């Protein structure tokens, strides 16, 4: 088992250092939920299918993340508060490659 | 006034299965849903997505599950109020309820079961500070009657199928159509994108990308929108209507004002007993409820619906004793006169 360290800034601007497991098939949205960094019901509404943008986050570090799927790209095309570094947390799998990733949760919309 | 035993708010999988479980107890159901068809998010958001944790189905598409649930409930002849949102609830002196929708349809029921899932799906509204001031005064989130826009100037924003399709459709009706999208790329059907390009080339649609509407101008009604385009100064477009089309987003909606105990955007229920809320006679089942250990799974909604119906029966008929029977033993008597039962074997004495 290998854990990775993440820096997640919540919607109140507070940055949390969290440890996430790589062997539980989790994604970033699920990590945020498990650490209760966003109020239940405001993140991961679609359950992680890239069909809502409630888990949108801004990637602050220069990690190379997997390319966006068409579903994620389409959802971000419709979402609000979208920046060039926007991604959907539910589409970012927790893997050893993202150790040290820094993200900020986008405002709720 | 529509009358029923159990009024189910939400016609998703849990609501639909409630019809079946209630039917076994000879209780009549009526369902209200804000969507124009039953099925909830399974049919609205992901009908083509496979689900793997429905018992006995190694894999089933969400849309197919919905169809099978509707088929299963048909024998109990449920009523539907679709395309309307449950707005208010009034408890009567006899403990029954009257639920009125946003369109004024009234329903009288002995029991109310909220199976609202994530809530009602409402248009996603852009973050423009004064947009609420102009709703129904030139800002519309849904196009109900295209003729309403005849010979008017219209600005549509959004980059999906809906925005493209309506921009194309209204180009033959409105005097001027402008489509504004935050990206250069549109995420619509290829046909729609090509048609929009053709209409742009003909000068019948004005397309502005990458740009966003940031403000609305007017006093009593919309007279224009302020647009910010990347790399350019903000500018104003004169218009009679601004139609943001950014899809739907689930909200708990008016149910949140019914005096129910809410925790983390979900309705608190007594899961140790019967999934009743803090208001006797109102139950909440499926994804809309919360309790210690809650799992938002369709199969958990089915279980909750089953227990809730047993409790509802006891509440409606406090003096009747009901003995739960397996459908393999008791069969199923539909309200439509059908009867399903296991074939009886003939046992002959062995000489």
TrEMBL record, chain A:
One GO MF term attached to the UniProt entry: 2 iron, 2 sulfur cluster binding
The UniProt record lists the keyword Iron-sulfur: yes
Keyword Metal-binding in record: yes
Keywords, ordered alphabetically: 2Fe-2S, Iron, Iron-sulfur, Metal-binding
One GO term (biological process): P450-containing electron transport chain
Matches recorded under SUPFAM superfamilies: 2Fe-2S ferredoxin-like (SSF54292)
2Fe-2S ferredoxin-type domain mapped to chain residues: 36-94
Annotated TM spans: none
Protein name: 2Fe-2S iron-sulfur cluster binding domain-containing protein
Gene source species: Polaribacter pectinis
TrEMBL record, chain B:
Molecular function (Gene Ontology), one example: NADP binding
Cofactor binding comment, as recorded: Binds 1 FAD per subunit.
Keyword terms: FAD, Flavoprotein, NADP, Oxidoreductase
Domain FAD/NAD(P)-binding, first and last residues per copy: 5-292
Cofactor requirements of the protein: FAD
E.C. code: 1.18.1.2
Annotated binding of FAD, by residue: 14, 33, 41, 46, 86, 121, 287, 328
Upper lineage: Bacteria, Pseudomonadati, Bacteroidota, Flavobacteriia, Flavobacteriales
Domain of life: Bacteria
Protein name: Ferredoxin--NADP reductase
Subunit and interaction comment: Homodimer.
Reaction catalyzed: 2 reduced [2Fe-2S]-[ferredoxin] + NADP(+) + H(+) = 2 oxidized [2Fe-2S]-[ferredoxin] + NADPH
Family stated for the protein in its record: Belongs to the ferredoxin--NADP reductase type 2 family.
Cited HAMAP family: FENR2
Gene3D superfamilies noted in UniProt: FAD/NAD(P)-binding domain (3.50.50.60)
Native organism: Polaribacter pectinis
Statement: the UniProt record of this protein carries the keyword Chaperone: no
InterPro entries named among the record's database cross-references: FAD/NAD-bd_sf, FAD/NAD-binding_dom, Fd--NADP_Rdtase_type_2, Ferredoxin-NADP_redctase_2
